[in-house]
Write a structure and sequence with these properties.
The complex is a heterodimer of chains A (208) and B (402). Chain A folds into two domains: 84 residues, no CATH class; 76 residues, no CATH class. Chain A is mainly alpha-helical and 208 residues long. Chain A is globular. Chain B contains 14 helices and eight strands. In chain B, strands 4-3-2-1-5-6-7-8 form an eight-stranded antiparallel beta sheet. In chain B, α2 crosses α7. The longest helix of chain B is centred in the last third of the chain and has 33 residues. Classes of the chains: A mainly alpha (208), B alpha+beta (402). At the A-B interface, α1, α3, α4, α7 and α8 of A face β3, α6, α7, α11 and α13 of B.
């Protein structure tokens, strides 16, 4: 009996430990900059500067998390994600000064795949919508308002869909439908067609 | 035969079938779930103190010596103005032992910078390099949520917590004393002066009973997060809608709440264009308005407007309730100090209140350190129940084997 229990405990522990190491690495909070460094193939000087810049960025992100966390443990996600976007934009600016063109491309590609983005039309897409649809100031105001309302609603619903990717997608689509409807209500038919073409690739991207 | 008697004891004389089956279920499910339940409980115990432990290692800039009179808020506003720095937000703690936290945007890097100040002397507190325990607590958190096994682990933990709930309820049936003085006394007390096995039995039976309702509550709030159907059941029972219900959209394709949010965004945009940032009222005036609208003591965070945000956002923690729970109220003011919007916790419907509190209700942060300590004791009891239960069973099993 003792032997059976001992062997069972050992097998269980071994299974846990072997799965655990991989899982802890997968569940690291934030971007895996060590993996990025490997892809970039940095020289000694670049590596030193990159580490210094990244350490400052990571500190800024943790500070932003602390500032935006209430005493009751609730995070202001809209503000935090906005801060993160600004911080990563700054990171991109700073690393561009130490990388060559090829490294910048690798960096941009990696960050595009791994960075948690604000769940809204980004500034580049907004500018494209404004220009290609030839929107006046009032129309663009409505587009921005719909986009910001979408972001706020989706982030505020986080407590409901937290930990459930299917439900997160459902909520994303629910608010996205309203965002599109609110914008299309102020557009003519030609603008609606162009708008739908511009946003056709905007989809819910589940957290990795 | 011996093996069978270890796991399926004989039904006692005068023992009801219901109680007998409860005993078998309690034993089997208890043994089966013991390891996972112990891991979940002990990691919960440790994680409960995350904030307190982090605060301890950062105490040099988080805590100050209490003195007679705190400096007015204008002192800090002027200090930053003299250095040509704009305050982005300021947190005024309710506790007299805590430092003031001010965040600014560095003009060179455009990144957030956090500064800590002594509220009595105005001295800037330098944050010492502290132990980075984030990796440790992240591991503990993941062990607690999913045994470090990802999505599969999350389902395993959820299933075992449901099993634990069944054990708690079957344990209550087993605990239920007969209607005589001796049994009732035994059910509610621990005979400390007795032998080891009797004390162990009382620790399982009696302490299990006293902690039952709290362990049930912590377990249910935990699986509320894991299973959408439980979340649904809880929110609907509190007057909310099904979480996966697709809202019927009106003719224009936009719900009232979405439209209201859009109106708010448009108003804010228009105010950004009209007003200059320098027209914003002073921090002391903001605090005065805030205290008039939210007339209670509480930690206050003021986020000032900027080029992208027209309104002043104030959040204040309200502990004016019979349990002293930390509830957060929010108000938005325009730059002249006029109230634009208020979100008071007590005005929210019950299901929304629960939604907002579900995490602190599960972690014990709901009332600050006092509730964290209480939750620690309860979850530690949860950790010991499989151990004391195993000892009760092992004593009988060993006897049967011999």
């Amino acid at each position: 009996m003792k032997k059976i229990l001992t062997i069972t405990a050992l097998i269980f522990s071994f299974t846990m430990i072997s799965c655990a190491k991989e899982e802890v690495q997968k569940k690291r909070r934030g971007i895996d900059f060590d993996a990025l460094k490997t892809e970039l193939n940095l020289n000694e000087d670049q590596e030193k500067k990159f580490e210094a810049i990244t350490a400052e960025i990571q500190k800024a992100i943790e500070e932003s998390r602390a500032i935006n966390m209430n005493e009751d443990g609730k995070l202001n996600r809209v503000k935090f994600f906005t801060d993160m976007e600004n911080i990563y934009n700054k990171h991109a600016e700073l690393v561009a000064e130490i990388f060559d063109e090829k490294q910048i491309d690798i960096y941009k590609d990696y960050m595009d795949k791994n960075q948690r983005k604000r769940p809204r039309y980004n500034d580049a897409l907004l500018e494209q919508i404004k220009t290609e649809l030839n929107l006046d100031e009032n129309q663009f105001l409505t587009v921005n308002a719909a986009n910001n309302a979408f972001e706020t609603e989706f982030q505020n619903a986080h407590d409901i869909y937290h930990g459930n990717s299917d439900l997160a997608k459902e909520y994303w689509e629910k608010f996205d439908t309203q965002r599109r409807n609110a914008i299309e209500n102020i557009l003519n038919e030609e603008q609606i067609e162009k708008f739908r073409e511009l946003i056709k690739d905007v989809k819910h991207s589940p957290r990795r | 035969m011996k093996l069978k008697s270890i796991f399926i004891r004989k039904r006692r004389k005068n023992e009801s079938l219901f109680k007998y089956i409860s005993a078998i279920i309690h034993l089997w499910l208890g043994l089966f779930s013991s390891v996972v339940v112990m891991i979940v409980c002990i990691t919960g115990c440790i994680y409960a103190f995350k904030n307190e432990i982090n605060n301890y290692f950062n105490r040099s800039h988080l805590y100050v010596k209490v003195e007679k009179q705190a400096l007015p808020i204008d002192f800090f506003e002027n200090k930053f103005k003299e250095n040509n720095l704009e305050i982005a937000s300021i947190t005024l703690p309710n506790s007299p032992k805590r430092s003031i936290v001010i965040s600014t945007i560095d003009p060179k890097t455009q990144l957030n910078q956090t500064h800590f100040f002594n509220p009595y002397t105005g001295e800037k507190l330098i944050s010492q390099p502290s132990k980075d325990l984030s990796k440790f607590f992240r591991t503990i958190e993941n062990l607690h949520k999913n045994l470090l096994l990802g999505e599969i682990g999350k389902q395993i933990v959820g299933a075992f917590v449901i099993i634990f709930i069944i054990c708690l309820l079957s344990g209550l049936i087993l605990w239920w004393p007969k209607r005589n003085k001796k049994q009732i006394k035994q059910a509610f007390t621990i005979k400390w002066k007795s032998k080891f096995y009797r004390v162990n039995y009382d620790l399982h039976n009696t302490i299990g009973f006293y902690s039952l309702i709290f362990l049930l509550f912590i377990s249910i709030t935990g699986i509320y997060i894991t299973y959408p159907w439980i979340k649904n059941a809880v929110l609907i029972s509190l007057g909310g809608q099904s979480i996966s219900q697709q809202t019927q959209l009106p003719e224009d394709g936009v719900t009232d709440s979405f439209a209201a949010l859009m109106d708010e965004m448009i108003k804010k945009e228009e105010e950004i264009d009209k007003n200059e940032i320098k027209d914003t009222i002073s921090l002391s005036e903001i605090l005065k308005v805030s205290n008039q609208i939210l007339p209670y003591e509480g930690t206050t965070t003021i986020t000032l407007p900027n080029e992208n945000e027209a309104w002043i956002r104030i959040q204040k923690t309200n502990t004016n309730n019979w349990l002293g729970m930390i509830l957060t109220d929010y108000i938005d003011l325009d730059r002249k100090g006029n109230l634009k919007k208020s979100e008071l916790f007590n005005d929210k419907p019950l299901h929304q209140q629960f939604q907002e509190l579900s995490k602190p209700l599960h972690t014990g942060e709901i009332m600050g350190t006092s509730s964290v300590v209480f939750y620690f004791i309860i979850t530690f009891i949860g950790f010991t129940l499989p151990i004391t239960g195993f000892i009760i069973w092992w004593k009988k099993a060993r006897r049967a084997i011999q």
